[in-house]
Amino acid sequence: MRCCQMVMGPAGVGKSTYCKAIQDYAATSRRTIHVVNLDPAAEAFEYDVAFDVRDLITLADVMEELELGPNGGLVYCMEYLLDNVDWLKDELDNYDDDEYIVFDCPGQVELYSYEYNVFDCPGQVELYSHIPVMKRLLEHFRYWGYTVCGVYALDATFMGDPAKFISGTLLSLSAMVQLELPHINVLTKCDLADMEEVEKFLDLDSAALASMHELATRSSRQRLGGEQGGQGAVGGAAASDAARQEGSHIAAPASSSAQQRALPRLERLTAAIAGIIDEFSMVGFIPMDISDDQSVALVLQHADHITQYGEGLEPKDPDDEAPDDDSMAQEFYGGLG
Ligand SMILES: Nc1nc2c(ncn2[C@@H]2O[C@H](COP(=O)(O)OP(=O)(O)OP(=O)(O)O)[C@@H](O)[C@H]2O)c(=O)[nH]1
Protein backbone atom coordinates (compact mmCIF):
# COMPACT_ATOMS: atom_id res chain seq x y z
CA MET A 1 0.00 0.00 0.00
CA ARG A 2 1.44 3.38 -0.99
CA CYS A 3 0.66 6.19 1.42
CA CYS A 4 1.86 9.73 1.58
CA GLN A 5 1.10 13.09 3.15
CA MET A 6 1.08 16.43 1.38
CA VAL A 7 1.92 19.08 3.96
CA MET A 8 0.43 22.40 2.90
CA GLY A 9 -0.45 25.76 4.38
CA PRO A 10 0.46 29.43 4.48
CA ALA A 11 4.09 30.50 4.43
CA GLY A 12 5.95 30.17 7.70
CA VAL A 13 3.28 28.24 9.61
CA GLY A 14 5.71 25.45 10.41
CA LYS A 15 5.32 22.90 7.59
CA SER A 16 9.00 21.92 7.58
CA THR A 17 9.06 21.81 11.37
CA TYR A 18 6.00 19.53 11.28
CA CYS A 19 7.82 17.22 8.84
CA LYS A 20 10.86 17.06 11.11
CA ALA A 21 8.71 16.42 14.19
CA ILE A 22 6.84 13.48 12.69
CA GLN A 23 10.02 12.07 11.14
CA ASP A 24 11.75 12.18 14.54
CA TYR A 25 8.73 10.77 16.34
CA ALA A 26 8.43 7.94 13.83
CA ALA A 27 12.11 7.06 14.30
CA THR A 28 11.53 6.61 18.03
CA SER A 29 8.65 4.24 17.28
CA ARG A 30 10.73 2.27 14.76
CA ARG A 31 8.93 3.53 11.76
CA THR A 32 10.63 5.30 8.89
CA ILE A 33 9.16 8.41 7.37
CA HIS A 34 10.85 9.77 4.26
CA VAL A 35 10.45 13.50 3.81
CA VAL A 36 10.65 15.03 0.35
CA ASN A 37 11.16 18.74 -0.17
CA LEU A 38 8.77 19.96 -2.88
CA ASP A 39 9.43 23.64 -2.20
CA PRO A 40 11.73 25.15 -4.83
CA ALA A 41 12.04 28.23 -2.62
CA ALA A 42 13.15 26.35 0.51
CA GLU A 43 16.21 27.80 2.15
CA ALA A 44 16.71 25.59 5.16
CA PHE A 45 15.02 22.67 6.88
CA GLU A 46 16.17 20.27 9.53
CA TYR A 47 14.67 16.95 8.49
CA ASP A 48 16.63 14.27 6.68
CA VAL A 49 15.62 14.88 3.11
CA ALA A 50 14.85 11.86 0.94
CA PHE A 51 15.06 13.90 -2.24
CA ASP A 52 14.69 17.54 -3.12
CA VAL A 53 12.86 19.37 -5.90
CA ARG A 54 15.71 21.90 -5.87
CA ASP A 55 17.80 19.27 -7.64
CA LEU A 56 15.40 19.80 -10.53
CA ILE A 57 14.68 23.52 -10.26
CA THR A 58 15.14 26.35 -7.78
CA LEU A 59 13.18 29.54 -7.37
CA ALA A 60 16.37 31.60 -7.18
CA ASP A 61 17.52 30.35 -10.62
CA VAL A 62 14.11 30.97 -12.19
CA MET A 63 13.90 34.50 -10.79
CA GLU A 64 17.35 35.33 -12.06
CA GLU A 65 17.18 33.69 -15.47
CA LEU A 66 13.59 34.53 -16.38
CA GLU A 67 13.44 37.80 -14.46
CA LEU A 68 10.30 36.73 -12.66
CA GLY A 69 9.17 37.83 -9.22
CA PRO A 70 8.87 35.33 -6.36
CA ASN A 71 5.22 34.48 -6.96
CA GLY A 72 5.39 34.11 -10.74
CA GLY A 73 8.66 32.26 -10.23
CA LEU A 74 7.07 29.78 -7.84
CA VAL A 75 4.21 29.08 -10.24
CA TYR A 76 6.76 28.57 -13.03
CA CYS A 77 8.75 26.12 -10.85
CA MET A 78 5.69 24.05 -9.99
CA GLU A 79 4.57 23.94 -13.62
CA TYR A 80 8.10 22.89 -14.57
CA LEU A 81 7.85 20.07 -12.03
CA LEU A 82 4.60 18.97 -13.64
CA ASP A 83 6.17 19.06 -17.09
CA ASN A 84 8.99 16.91 -15.72
CA VAL A 85 6.87 14.66 -13.57
CA ASP A 86 8.92 11.64 -14.71
CA TRP A 87 11.74 13.00 -12.55
CA LEU A 88 9.45 12.75 -9.54
CA LYS A 89 8.31 9.27 -10.53
CA ASP A 90 11.91 8.07 -10.95
CA GLU A 91 12.80 9.39 -7.49
CA LEU A 92 9.74 7.74 -5.93
CA ASP A 93 10.55 4.46 -7.62
CA ASN A 94 13.59 4.23 -5.30
CA TYR A 95 11.16 3.54 -2.45
CA ASP A 96 9.18 0.38 -1.78
CA ASP A 97 5.40 0.37 -1.86
CA ASP A 98 5.09 0.15 1.94
CA GLU A 99 7.42 3.08 2.61
CA TYR A 100 5.77 6.19 3.93
CA ILE A 101 6.51 9.51 2.26
CA VAL A 102 5.76 13.05 3.42
CA PHE A 103 5.93 15.93 0.96
CA ASP A 104 6.87 19.34 2.33
CA CYS A 105 5.00 21.61 -0.10
CA PRO A 106 5.55 25.28 -0.94
CA GLY A 107 3.89 27.82 1.31
CA GLN A 108 0.91 29.90 0.36
CA VAL A 109 1.55 33.63 0.55
CA GLU A 110 -1.43 35.02 2.40
CA LEU A 111 -0.80 38.73 2.50
CA TYR A 112 -4.44 39.57 2.03
CA SER A 113 -5.77 37.56 4.90
CA TYR A 114 -3.16 38.16 7.53
CA GLU A 115 -1.98 41.69 6.84
CA TYR A 116 -3.88 44.92 6.97
CA ASN A 117 -3.90 47.98 4.71
CA VAL A 118 -1.45 46.91 2.03
CA PHE A 119 -1.27 49.53 -0.71
CA ASP A 120 1.28 48.37 -3.27
CA CYS A 121 -0.35 45.02 -3.64
CA PRO A 122 1.85 42.02 -4.25
CA GLY A 123 0.56 38.84 -5.87
CA GLN A 124 -0.87 35.93 -3.98
CA VAL A 125 0.24 32.43 -4.74
CA GLU A 126 -2.78 30.18 -4.95
CA LEU A 127 -1.15 26.92 -5.86
CA TYR A 128 -3.81 25.08 -3.90
CA SER A 129 -6.93 26.69 -5.27
CA HIS A 130 -6.87 28.99 -8.30
CA ILE A 131 -3.84 27.60 -10.10
CA PRO A 132 -4.40 23.88 -10.59
CA VAL A 133 -0.76 22.77 -10.24
CA MET A 134 -1.21 20.92 -6.95
CA LYS A 135 -4.43 19.35 -8.15
CA ARG A 136 -2.72 18.06 -11.28
CA LEU A 137 0.22 16.80 -9.27
CA LEU A 138 -2.19 14.88 -7.07
CA GLU A 139 -3.75 13.27 -10.11
CA HIS A 140 -0.31 11.82 -10.89
CA PHE A 141 0.02 10.52 -7.33
CA ARG A 142 -3.33 8.79 -7.57
CA TYR A 143 -2.38 7.31 -10.94
CA TRP A 144 0.84 5.97 -9.39
CA GLY A 145 -1.25 4.25 -6.73
CA TYR A 146 -0.73 6.52 -3.74
CA THR A 147 -3.34 7.17 -1.09
CA VAL A 148 -2.72 10.78 -0.20
CA CYS A 149 -3.53 12.51 3.07
CA GLY A 150 -3.67 16.30 2.88
CA VAL A 151 -2.24 17.96 5.97
CA TYR A 152 -3.15 21.61 6.19
CA ALA A 153 -1.04 23.47 8.73
CA LEU A 154 -2.22 26.59 10.51
CA ASP A 155 -0.39 28.59 13.14
CA ALA A 156 -1.96 28.17 16.60
CA THR A 157 -0.56 31.50 17.76
CA PHE A 158 -2.99 33.19 15.35
CA MET A 159 -5.96 31.53 16.96
CA GLY A 160 -6.52 34.27 19.50
CA ASP A 161 -7.62 36.54 16.66
CA PRO A 162 -11.02 35.45 15.31
CA ALA A 163 -10.47 37.20 11.98
CA LYS A 164 -7.31 35.15 11.41
CA PHE A 165 -9.03 32.01 12.63
CA ILE A 166 -11.87 32.46 10.14
CA SER A 167 -9.50 33.36 7.34
CA GLY A 168 -7.31 30.32 8.09
CA THR A 169 -10.35 28.07 8.25
CA LEU A 170 -11.54 29.29 4.87
CA LEU A 171 -8.09 28.74 3.35
CA SER A 172 -8.07 25.19 4.61
CA LEU A 173 -11.60 24.68 3.35
CA SER A 174 -10.65 26.03 -0.06
CA ALA A 175 -7.71 23.60 -0.30
CA MET A 176 -9.95 20.77 0.90
CA VAL A 177 -12.63 21.47 -1.70
CA GLN A 178 -10.20 22.05 -4.57
CA LEU A 179 -7.90 19.12 -3.94
CA GLU A 180 -10.60 16.63 -2.93
CA LEU A 181 -8.27 14.86 -0.52
CA PRO A 182 -8.78 13.05 2.75
CA HIS A 183 -7.60 15.88 4.90
CA ILE A 184 -6.57 16.89 8.41
CA ASN A 185 -5.93 20.36 9.79
CA VAL A 186 -3.03 20.67 12.17
CA LEU A 187 -2.48 23.57 14.52
CA THR A 188 1.24 24.12 14.63
CA LYS A 189 3.34 26.01 17.20
CA CYS A 190 1.12 24.93 20.11
CA ASP A 191 4.19 25.11 22.34
CA LEU A 192 4.13 28.88 21.74
CA ALA A 193 0.37 29.40 21.92
CA ASP A 194 -1.96 30.12 24.79
CA MET A 195 -3.64 26.71 24.82
CA GLU A 196 -6.65 27.97 26.74
CA GLU A 197 -7.38 30.29 23.82
CA VAL A 198 -6.63 27.57 21.28
CA GLU A 199 -8.89 25.02 22.95
CA LYS A 200 -11.87 27.30 22.40
CA PHE A 201 -11.44 26.69 18.68
CA LEU A 202 -10.87 22.95 18.79
CA ASP A 203 -14.48 22.05 19.24
CA LEU A 204 -16.47 24.98 18.04
CA ASP A 205 -19.93 25.40 19.46
CA SER A 206 -22.30 28.32 19.45
CA ALA A 207 -20.88 29.71 22.71
CA ALA A 208 -17.36 29.73 21.28
CA LEU A 209 -18.66 31.32 18.10
CA ALA A 210 -20.47 33.98 20.06
CA SER A 211 -17.30 34.89 21.92
CA MET A 212 -15.38 34.76 18.66
CA HIS A 213 -17.81 37.19 17.12
CA GLU A 214 -17.56 39.49 20.08
CA LEU A 215 -13.77 39.43 19.88
CA ALA A 216 -13.89 40.11 16.15
CA THR A 217 -16.12 43.11 16.70
CA ARG A 218 -13.87 44.52 19.39
CA SER A 219 -10.78 43.96 17.28
CA SER A 220 -12.34 45.69 14.21
CA ARG A 221 -13.45 48.65 16.28
CA GLN A 222 -9.97 48.98 17.74
CA ARG A 223 -8.45 49.00 14.28
CA LEU A 224 -10.85 51.55 12.86
CA GLY A 225 -10.69 53.67 16.00
CA GLY A 226 -6.88 53.61 15.81
CA GLU A 227 -6.61 52.66 19.49
CA GLN A 228 -3.01 52.71 20.61
CA GLY A 229 -1.76 49.26 21.51
CA GLY A 230 -4.82 47.49 20.05
CA GLN A 231 -4.57 43.88 18.92
CA GLY A 232 -4.77 44.61 15.18
CA ALA A 233 -3.50 42.23 12.53
CA VAL A 234 -0.17 44.05 12.51
CA GLY A 235 -0.27 45.02 16.17
CA GLY A 236 -2.41 48.15 15.88
CA ALA A 237 -1.37 51.73 15.35
CA ALA A 238 1.93 51.40 17.21
CA ALA A 239 3.11 48.61 14.92
CA SER A 240 2.02 50.55 11.85
CA ASP A 241 3.92 53.65 12.96
CA ALA A 242 7.03 51.56 13.44
CA ALA A 243 6.53 49.93 10.05
CA ARG A 244 6.12 53.33 8.39
CA GLN A 245 9.34 54.58 9.95
CA GLU A 246 11.10 51.58 8.45
CA GLY A 247 9.74 52.54 5.02
CA SER A 248 7.35 49.60 4.86
CA HIS A 249 4.21 49.57 2.70
CA ILE A 250 2.07 48.89 5.77
CA ALA A 251 0.03 52.00 6.45
CA ALA A 252 -1.40 53.22 9.73
CA PRO A 253 -5.02 52.26 10.43
CA ALA A 254 -7.26 54.86 8.87
CA SER A 255 -10.38 55.99 10.65
CA SER A 256 -12.68 56.75 7.74
CA SER A 257 -16.42 57.14 7.88
CA ALA A 258 -16.79 54.72 4.94
CA GLN A 259 -15.02 52.01 6.91
CA GLN A 260 -17.08 52.78 9.99
CA ARG A 261 -20.27 52.46 7.93
CA ALA A 262 -19.11 49.12 6.51
CA LEU A 263 -18.36 47.68 9.94
CA PRO A 264 -21.82 46.39 10.90
CA ARG A 265 -22.10 44.58 7.56
CA LEU A 266 -18.65 43.04 8.02
CA GLU A 267 -19.58 41.97 11.54
CA ARG A 268 -22.71 40.27 10.21
CA LEU A 269 -20.62 38.60 7.51
CA THR A 270 -18.15 37.35 10.14
CA ALA A 271 -21.00 35.92 12.18
CA ALA A 272 -22.58 34.29 9.11
CA ILE A 273 -19.31 32.65 8.03
CA ALA A 274 -18.64 31.44 11.57
CA GLY A 275 -22.20 30.06 11.71
CA ILE A 276 -21.73 28.13 8.45
CA ILE A 277 -18.41 26.67 9.61
CA ASP A 278 -20.12 25.55 12.81
CA GLU A 279 -23.37 24.32 11.26
CA PHE A 280 -21.72 22.05 8.73
CA SER A 281 -18.88 20.93 11.05
CA MET A 282 -16.65 21.54 8.08
CA VAL A 283 -13.29 22.12 9.65
CA GLY A 284 -11.75 20.56 12.75
CA PHE A 285 -8.26 21.08 14.10
CA ILE A 286 -5.71 18.82 15.73
CA PRO A 287 -3.24 20.65 17.95
CA MET A 288 0.42 19.73 17.68
CA ASP A 289 3.04 20.59 20.25
CA ILE A 290 6.39 19.47 18.85
CA SER A 291 7.84 19.29 22.35
CA ASP A 292 5.27 16.63 23.33
CA ASP A 293 5.56 13.16 21.79
CA GLN A 294 1.96 12.31 22.65
CA SER A 295 0.75 15.26 20.66
CA VAL A 296 2.88 14.34 17.63
CA ALA A 297 1.66 10.74 17.95
CA LEU A 298 -1.93 11.92 17.88
CA VAL A 299 -1.44 13.85 14.63
CA LEU A 300 0.24 10.90 12.96
CA GLN A 301 -2.51 8.62 14.19
CA HIS A 302 -5.16 10.84 12.60
CA ALA A 303 -3.30 10.88 9.30
CA ASP A 304 -2.87 7.10 9.40
CA HIS A 305 -6.51 6.65 10.24
CA ILE A 306 -7.87 8.57 7.29
CA THR A 307 -5.58 6.85 4.81
CA GLN A 308 -5.96 3.50 6.60
CA TYR A 309 -2.19 3.27 6.68
CA GLY A 310 -0.89 0.24 8.52
CA GLU A 311 -3.95 -1.92 7.93
CA GLY A 312 -2.76 -5.26 6.73
CA LEU A 313 0.88 -4.55 7.64
CA GLU A 314 2.41 -7.39 9.68
CA PRO A 315 4.67 -6.43 12.60
CA LYS A 316 8.19 -7.44 11.60
CA ASP A 317 8.90 -9.00 15.01
CA PRO A 318 6.27 -9.38 17.75
CA ASP A 319 8.91 -8.53 20.42
CA ASP A 320 9.70 -5.33 18.57
CA GLU A 321 6.28 -3.72 18.92
CA ALA A 322 6.31 0.03 18.53
CA PRO A 323 4.92 2.20 21.36
CA ASP A 324 1.15 2.20 21.37
CA ASP A 325 0.13 5.42 19.58
CA ASP A 326 -3.52 4.92 20.60
CA SER A 327 -2.87 5.05 24.33
CA MET A 328 -0.45 7.98 23.91
CA ALA A 329 -3.03 9.89 21.92
CA GLN A 330 -5.76 9.16 24.46
CA GLU A 331 -3.52 10.49 27.22
CA PHE A 332 -2.99 13.66 25.18
CA TYR A 333 -6.73 14.11 24.59
CA GLY A 334 -7.24 13.68 28.33
CA GLY A 335 -4.58 16.33 28.91
CA LEU A 336 -6.54 18.75 26.77
CA GLY A 337 -9.56 18.20 28.97
N1 LIG B 1 8.51 26.96 18.80
C1 LIG B 1 8.10 26.54 17.62
N2 LIG B 1 8.56 27.13 16.51
C2 LIG B 1 8.13 26.68 15.33
C3 LIG B 1 7.20 25.62 15.22
N3 LIG B 1 6.94 25.42 13.91
C4 LIG B 1 7.70 26.29 13.25
N4 LIG B 1 8.41 27.06 14.08
C5 LIG B 1 9.33 28.15 13.70
O1 LIG B 1 8.66 28.97 12.74
C6 LIG B 1 9.55 29.32 11.68
C7 LIG B 1 8.99 28.82 10.35
O2 LIG B 1 8.92 27.42 10.42
P1 LIG B 1 9.04 26.50 9.12
O3 LIG B 1 8.88 25.10 9.59
O4 LIG B 1 10.23 26.83 8.32
O5 LIG B 1 7.74 26.99 8.35
P2 LIG B 1 7.27 26.62 6.86
O6 LIG B 1 5.78 26.62 6.86
O7 LIG B 1 7.94 25.37 6.42
O8 LIG B 1 7.84 27.87 6.08
P3 LIG B 1 7.84 28.10 4.47
O9 LIG B 1 8.43 26.86 3.87
O10 LIG B 1 8.71 29.31 4.32
O11 LIG B 1 6.44 28.34 4.04
C8 LIG B 1 10.89 28.71 12.03
O12 LIG B 1 11.67 29.68 12.68
C9 LIG B 1 10.55 27.58 12.99
O13 LIG B 1 11.59 27.32 13.91
C10 LIG B 1 6.71 25.00 16.41
O14 LIG B 1 5.88 24.09 16.41
N5 LIG B 1 7.19 25.51 17.58
Automatic annotation (TrEMBL):
- Ranges annotated as biased composition (Acidic residues): 317-328
Which GO molecular function entries does the Swiss-Prot or TrEMBL record give?
A: GTP binding; GTPase activity
Q: Where is the composition biased (Gly residues)?
A: 226-235
**Origin, by domain of life?**
Eukaryota
Q: Which UniProt keywords apply?
A: GTP-binding, Hydrolase, Nucleotide-binding
Record SUPFAM superfamilies: P-loop containing nucleoside triphosphate hydrolases
The record ties this protein, via InterPro entries, to:
Gpn, Gpn3, P-loop_NTPase
Record has GTP-binding as a keyword: yes
Q: Name one Pfam family in it.
A: ATP_bind_1
Which stretches does the entry tag as region Disordered? Answer: 219-257, 310-337
Keyword Nucleotide-binding appears in the UniProt entry: yes
How does it associate, per the subunit comment? Binds to RNA polymerase II (RNAPII).
* Assigned protein family: Belongs to the GPN-loop GTPase family.
Q: What does this protein do?
A: Small GTPase required for proper nuclear import of RNA polymerase II and III (RNAPII and RNAPIII). May act at an RNAP assembly step prior to nuclear import.
Q: What is this protein called?
A: GPN-loop GTPase 3
Q: Which organism is it from?
A: Tribonema minus
Mind giving the lineage of the organism this protein is from?
Eukaryota, Sar, Stramenopiles, Ochrophyta, PX clade
